[in-house]
């Protein structure tokens, strides 16, 4: 049997990645959602994104959200900051960590941030310098590590090369994203093996979308190879606005349940996360896509009826 990590850190991306496509969400909804998540045992919550409101209007209130939330000691509150201007706003709001994002695919980079992969990395240099000046740790997101919606399969060696460049820029960790959710365990293993040749496994995280229903299987594969940081979104909220057909991120509830079954400690209260997911989904007028969350609610209903 595979040797699995004893403890996993879950990076909760629901309040940013999960809500960036939702038109009905208000600032108050976001603040309430993050406050609920802060009570669950999560240790890293991505709270917003300082990006152009022209491209992602739902994140235009990130500074208001971050300054209004009830911060809990011991929790990292982070935000996406693709440029120096965004980082300056994040610093004003008192953010703990920030993240930059790039792509392993040239096609996706052009469609997503209108420049080549090498140009995107060059653009991050002033961000990294300013973050270093303020002692703010920077995380790197790397998209399309399996397939690109415009170019097809992404060569693992390309993923490894760009991930290494992000580490060399100064990122403390690179989150490897299966943006369109087409990965399967064997392909994930091949990609991780390639990346791990250049970067220690403890500097890698995984960020899997569940479009083809493979996210949990892929997470198990990553865990079996020593990865111990997983990005997920409560209630399975989210997707990618630049990747047609990409469904939500893997649900935090489903990841916690998987870890519990594997004897891996997360420090997170599953029921409280599920409640936070139901609350935000009611505000959005939709149901959670988390199977675990739906099962918990169904069990609660049965117990009430007994």
From TrEMBL:
Enzyme class: lyase
Annotated Pyruvate carboxyltransferase domain residues: 8-274
Keywords for the protein's UniProt record, in alphabetical order: Lyase, Metal-binding
Biological process per Gene Ontology, one example term: ketone body biosynthetic process
Protein's UniProt name: hydroxymethylglutaryl-CoA lyase
InterPro entries: Aldolase_TIM, HMGL, PYR_CT
Pfam family membership, one: HMGL-like
Highest taxon in the source lineage: Bacteria
UniProt-listed SUPFAM superfamilies: Aldolase
Gene Ontology molecular-function annotations: hydroxymethylglutaryl-CoA lyase activity; metal ion binding
